[in-house]
Amino acid sequence: MGYGRFAAMTGTSTVVIFGLMYPNTYALDHIFFSQTRMWMALYMGAAMAVIMLAFMFGLYSNRTLNIAIFVGAIEECRPTSEFNRYSKSWRISRPYRQRSRQENPYWALILVESTK
Fold first, then answer.
1. For the chain, how many structural domains are there in total?
2. Nearest residue to 39 via CA among 18, 70, 11, 16
3. How many CA atoms lie within 13 A of 61 on its CB side?
4. Distance from chain centroid for Cα 35
């Protein structure tokens, strides 16, 4: 197996991971592009590349390229995790947050439960 096939496996799996996050939505009108899902799919794809290459290390003989893949995948994990955790790439505006709180009939219940 060549490195092109490895890249295709990893890329295809990352796209499938991204797609598999959408069946967890409650209603059809909640299905839209989500940066959080994108960052998590890239994070999981990078972790999967490391795991897959570790298990198939004997199949790929180019040591320099193997190390580059390991380092690249690990370096991809760090910024995608930070983007997802801190939402550095975008911010939800304050009026949107206030409007969503007003429209959510369970907001008061959520606040009460979270303070217990």
1. 1
2. 18
3. 1
4. 8
With the C-alpha atoms ordered 106, 81, 96, 25, is the resulting torsion angle positive or negative? negative
Encoded amino acid at 43, one letter: Y
pTM of the model: 0.65
Dist. CA 53–CA 66, nearest whole Å: 8
Q: CA 47, CA 20: separation in Å to the nearest integer?
A: 17
Half-sphere exposure of residue 48: CA atoms within 13 angstroms, side-chain side: 18
**Amino acid of residue 58:** G
Which stretches in the chain have pLDDT values below 70? Answer: 86-116
3-state secondary structure of 92: coil
Domain that holds residue 81: 3-114
Give the pLDDT score at 50.
Answer: 92
Angle at 82 between CA 78 and CA 83, to 5 degrees: 115
